[in-house]
Fold this sequence. Notes:
Distance between the termini: 96 Å
Shape: rod-shaped
Structural class: mainly alpha
Number of helices: 12
Strand content: 5-15%
Largest sheet: 3 strands, parallel
Helix content: 55-70%
Radius of gyration: 45 Å
Amino acid sequence: FERKTSLFALALAEVLMINLWASDIGRWDAANYSLLKNVFELNLQLFQRSKKNKTLLFFVIRDHFYDVKRRTGTPIELLTPTIQKDLEKIWTDIIKPDDFKESKVQDFFDFDFTGLPHKLHAPDEFETKVNLLKTRFFISDQHDYLLDKKYKGEVPSDALPTYIARVWQTIKENKDLDLPSERQMVAVFRCSQIMEAILAKFNEQLKPLRKTLREENKEVQNFAAEATRLMKDAIDQYNTESMYYEPSVSEQKRQSLNDQMRRELHELFILQIKFITSNALHHFKEAFLRGLPSDGKAARNFAELANHLSQKTLTYFDQRATDSIPPGTEWDISLDRASLQEQIDDFISVQRKKQLELLLQEVQALLKKSIYNPLSQHMDRVSHTMWADLNKLYEDTQLKTSRTLR
Length: 406
């Protein structure tokens, strides 16, 4: 737990204060250098995620004593080289990733030192030094001001609670301590918020399209243009609001927003194509039935009518369906077209059967008129040319019926 809380502090702090007893300087166990070694080692994994700013390690040497007049005790200036040497040794000994094999502790940390006298033995001096120490955090124009901009993190105040919670959750679960950088954490939090807000607005703007398709049961005019406009407005708004956040995270959330908008639109697109198909088939059937003879006779141009209206309907579908596809989506309409073609063919097949029945009735009537009546007349007055006359009657009738069947 001590290791995790120490790492937690180091991951969050711009300036990390480390209390070190003066009597423990140079003593590995007493100074708790082993803990510092572990924290350095684990914290180095964070820099693989490219934290840009250094952290200031501010060593507060407790129970420090130095009397300038009497020259007793040890001045801070003589203690700091020992501490720095120890830190460099710790850094040399830690296990480093390949990318940081040649790194130095100064690549990631700056150091500063101060001393505080014994609180019980020198309470007045202790109080004075503590008050002076406070000014180093609050008075920005003094030369030893600690909260320098170069240590400043990139987490805004509204995102800080979320960032802190996520850092601690990651450490607590010990997921290889793969903590993202502050900038990435903030970007994930804010870009997610921006994306969700824009997606909610986008869904609100889809209501008129949904009403037309789902409640009024008809296709949307200019579907592709309207869908493209709504997506473009949403992406433009997202780009404006997310432009100051980590580009890789912003791009990832932008793609997620784009994918979710496309999923919402694709559901409506399926309905749009359904109504285009239905309308095309309806118009085809109406035009086909109007093209058939109204007197109940068989159509003499059935094949021509079927081919013409079939091609006209498929062309209408291709144009309407293709015009409904928003640019860049590449949504497939081939199955819908094949389904429409199949329904057209089925309808033509049914009508062909009906027309053949009508044609058969016409042929039967023609045969009766052309053969049965003249045959009766020939049989009533038999002559020596009867068989020749009957043969000619058969040939003439065959010619008429073959022309009818064509």
